[in-house]
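Researcher: Let's do a round of design. I'm pasting the structure tokens now; please hold your answer until I've finished.
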């Protein structure tokens, strides 16, 4: 693959870049998934393992993806091809970038549907639908939403249109303007809700639940869950951080930016946990309510508490902002690829991709109603199949191979230029990329496959791929 058009766009400042990257990382995973998996896995001990995984796995791979993007100066597909050629690697490394582009587009196809639920709940909360509502009524409300394909398609369309319009305007006029409005707004709302949480009478209980570890509640499955979520919460393997890195000036520090991204993403998740569990405990509800915590448990709490209309509406506004900031980032790698590699201008590319993604998303909509009995991958619905392929195969494989490339293929001087760490820190960084991060990702990858009754051969292929790349890298450097 020859070197084609490079990225011409650039961020206005490092602060804007960090806000955009944080906006990508902060999404439904922070406000929906993190609280419920923390609740399911016992609280403090799980959080401690999660923080360790962010430090040991998430940050090194995040820095690697940003470095590859800036070194390649292009969309993920072309960036990987450029960097591979300049460092003596195979042109097939471009497929790693393509994996990220496709994964982001597929995830966005169902992400816009789930984000549509959040928009629907925000509107319902604004109209006072949840005032005085009980658990049975909330359950019927949520079931009714899922059972109505036309309503789901409407909200799916609203989110998709917003995403396309913002991205079509470009980096400075579109993404930057949206992010510089949404991220401060998100933080402000979160702080207001945190202030309210301190008045619920259950804030101390929430603090203890999140930060007082009880290791008797920690299971091996909980460790794997923490490891997987730490990896995915930073938007690693999607190509997003790679394309965002390609817009980053050489004068800005990737290390500083990466640390700020990981710190902000983690803080938002922890603060959201404090807010949610304070409200849950204050109303005598269960922390381990599972995936229904956001859409079925919290509306009951907001419906019963004083000021519930105001704080419930604020909370769902927070969820909507987080979801939209992530949606923008999921389509950008594909738009950049269309523009640079295929000569399709940004506006046209955004609308073409938006239509394709919207169409695929109809399959997710129908998975909850008309196609609920239709199975595509084993016993999985269309939505479950796309989610399984992206979360359990494409993302971990992408993160694994990025770590392999930066550790084994990337030349020492290029790595040092993009990620300038002192001698000892660089040694630790390389060791983590060579052994800790890849093995951890493969453990999660393999366990997810085996746990879902997939063919064990897939696990062996994964380890074989790693061994092949390591062997080739050593041979090239000898």
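Researcher: That's everything. Go ahead.
Model: Designed sequence:
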């Amino acid at each position: 693959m020859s070197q084609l058009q490079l990225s011409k766009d650039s961020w206005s400042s490092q602060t804007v870049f960090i806000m955009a990257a944080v906006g990508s990382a902060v999404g439904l995973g922070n406000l929906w998934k993190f609280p419920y998996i923390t609740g399911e896995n016992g609280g403090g001990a799980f959080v401690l393992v999660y923080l360790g995984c962010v430090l040991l796995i998430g940050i090194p791979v995040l820095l690697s993806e940003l470095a590859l993007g800036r070194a390649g100066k292009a969309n993920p597909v072309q960036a990987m091809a450029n960097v591979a050629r300049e460092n003596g690697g195979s042109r097939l490394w471009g497929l790693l970038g393509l994996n990220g582009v496709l994964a982001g587009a597929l995830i966005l196809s169902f992400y816009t549907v789930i984000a549509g639920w959040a928009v629907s709940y925000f509107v319902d909360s604004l109209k006072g639908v949840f005032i005085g509502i009980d658990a049975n009524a909330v359950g019927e409300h949520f079931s009714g939403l899922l059972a109505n394909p036309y309503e789901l398609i409407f909200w799916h369309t609203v989110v998709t249109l917003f995403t396309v319009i913002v991205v079509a305007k470009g980096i400075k006029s579109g993404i930057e303007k949206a992010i510089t409005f949404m991220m401060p707004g998100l933080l402000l709302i979160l702080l207001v809700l945190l202030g309210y949480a301190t008045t619920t009478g259950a804030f101390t209980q929430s603090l203890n639940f999140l930060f007082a570890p009880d290791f008797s509640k920690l299971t091996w499955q909980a460790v794997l869950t923490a490891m997987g979520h730490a990896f995915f919460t930073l938007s690693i393997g999607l190509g997003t951080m790679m394309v965002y890195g390609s817009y980053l000036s050489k004068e800005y520090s990737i290390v500083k930016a990466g640390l700020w991204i990981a710190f902000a993403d983690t803080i938002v998740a922890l603060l959201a946990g404090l807010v949610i569990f304070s409200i849950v405990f204050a109303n005598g509800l269960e922390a381990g309510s599972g995936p229904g915590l956001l859409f079925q448990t919290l509306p009951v709490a907001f419906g019963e508490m004083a000021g519930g209309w105001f704080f419930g509406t604020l909370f769902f506004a927070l969820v909507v902002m987080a979801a939209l900031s992530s949606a923008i980032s999921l389509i950008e790698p594909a738009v950049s690829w269309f523009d640079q590699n295929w000569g399709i201008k940004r506006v046209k590319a955004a609308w073409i991709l938006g239509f394709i993604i919207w169409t695929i998303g109809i399959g997710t909509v129908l998975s909850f109603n008309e196609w609920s009995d239709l199975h595509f991958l084993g016993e999985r619905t269309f939505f479950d199949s796309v989610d399984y392929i992206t979360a359990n195969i494409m993302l971990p494989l992408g993160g694994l191979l990025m770590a392999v490339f930066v550790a084994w293929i990337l030349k020492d001087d290029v790595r040092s230029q993009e990620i300038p760490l002192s001698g000892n820190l660089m040694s630790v960084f390389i060791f983590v990329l060579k052994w800790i991060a890849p093995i951890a990702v493969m453990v999660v990858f393999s366990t997810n496959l085996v746990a879902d009754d997939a063919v064990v051969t897939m696990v062996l292929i994964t380890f074989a791929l790693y061994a092949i790349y390591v062997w080739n890298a050593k041979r090239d450097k000898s």
